User: Which sequence fits this backbone?
């Protein structure tokens, strides 16, 4: 019994060393993005900060658009990248050190990296288009005081002014419809989202069965899971 306890503790210390080293030294250049990370705690009204107060209906549109982006951002950072950086990469690091060699990361995590790239690409495309439209809307807002002065000077409303001058000025509020259309037009040209998630769904059952078999056969893997959870908890509390 004493020998078993010593062996168990030795295995635990070995795994702790490998996992801690992987977590502390990990630098994910492909997915690290400070610009996106800063938006995790941002609210919709902070992002769409306009000079003019939008109507209630338009506020609802802005909230819906922001929710589309923000839920994907949370899914990327708090689920996909956690699986990748907290479990997959430390597991591979342990295997480099000669530990947990019987575990197959590709069977366990499937096309996780592909899903991370697709999710990040969606968020980056969304942010690029949103910033582009926001910039144009800010330019329109700057024009509003000038238009109001012209309307007052010529004693006409804005529609009459546009008709008289042969031009039109767009709505000064953020164009949510244009954002959604441009987003999906751009995103549809990238990797096939449907095929990626289809592969994930098809392999899900086999992955869960494989995970169950590993937990039964590989004691060190159970220790790896416990150690990873404990270390992540301690890092999050700092």
Assistant:
């Amino acid at each position: 019994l004493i020998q078993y306890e010593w062996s168990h503790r030795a295995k635990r210390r070995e795994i702790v060393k490998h996992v801690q080293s992987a977590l502390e030294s990990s630098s994910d250049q492909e997915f690290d993005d400070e610009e996106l990370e800063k938006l995790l705690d941002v609210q919709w009204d902070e992002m769409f900060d306009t000079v003019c107060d939008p109507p209630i209906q338009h506020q609802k549109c802005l909230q819906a658009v922001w929710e589309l982006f923000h839920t994907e951002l949370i899914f990327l950072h708090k689920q996909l990248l956690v699986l990748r950086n907290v479990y997959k990469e430390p597991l591979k690091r342990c295997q480099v050190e000669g530990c947990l060699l019987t575990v197959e990361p590709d069977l366990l995590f499937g096309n996780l990296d592909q899903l991370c790239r697709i999710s990040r690409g969606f968020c980056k495309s969304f942010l690029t288009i949103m910033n582009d439209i926001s910039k144009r809307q800010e330019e329109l807002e700057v024009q509003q005081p000038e238009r109001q002065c012209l309307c007052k000077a010529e004693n006409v409303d804005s529609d009459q002014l546009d008709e008289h001058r042969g031009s039109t000025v767009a709505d000064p509020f953020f164009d949510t419809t244009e954002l959604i259309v441009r987003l999906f037009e751009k995103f549809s040209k990238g990797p096939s989202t449907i095929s990626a998630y289809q592969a994930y769904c098809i392999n899900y059952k086999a992955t869960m069965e494989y995970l169950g078999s590993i937990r039964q056969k590989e004691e060190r893997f159970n220790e790896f899971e416990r150690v990873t959870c404990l270390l992540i908890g301690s890092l999050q509390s700092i």
